[in-house]
Amino acid sequence: MSYADLRELQTALTHAADLASGLQTAPSRQDADQLVDVLRRALTAAGSLSETGTTGCAAHPHGAVDPLYGDPEDPLPPGYGKCLLCNDRRRRADARPHAPLRRTA
Q1: Is 63:83 a contact under the CB 8 Å cutoff?
Q2: Which end of the chain is less enclosed by CB atoms within 10 A, N or C?
Q3: What is the DSSP letter of 97?
Q4: How far is it, in rounded angstroms, from Cα 3 to Cα 68?
C-alpha cells in the first residue's frame, strides 16, 4: 500500500461527499458525470490498497512498498520501482559522491 494511494482515496471520498451533499435537486448531467469520475478515482485508489507486499522486485517480492511510489506530488526518480529496500539503497548510493580510495604503504 502506498501512502499516496491512501491519500488519494481519502481525498476522492471527501470530494464525492462534498459533491453529493451539495446537491439540492436532481443533478445535472455534468454534476452526475463529475460525481461518477470522483467515485471511480476512489474505487481505483481503494483497489490499489490491496496490493500490499507486492513490490515486483526479484530480491524482495514481499518487501515494503515505497511510500512515495505513485505519489504525483513527490514522484520517484526514473528507474525506481515499488520496493522500499531497493529504493533506499539507490537513495543512499546517490546521496553522496564516493571518495577515491587511498592506499597506504
Answers
A1: yes
A2: C
A3: P
A4: 7
> Which cell goes with 29?
448531467
How far is the C-alpha of 6 from the C-alpha of 13, rounded, in Å?
11
C-alpha cell read off for 11: 481525498
pTM of structure? 0.48
C-alpha angle 12/66/11, rounded to 5°? 10
Spacing of C-alpha 58 from chain mean position: 20
- Angle, vertex CA 71, rays to CA 69 and CA 74, nearest 5: 105
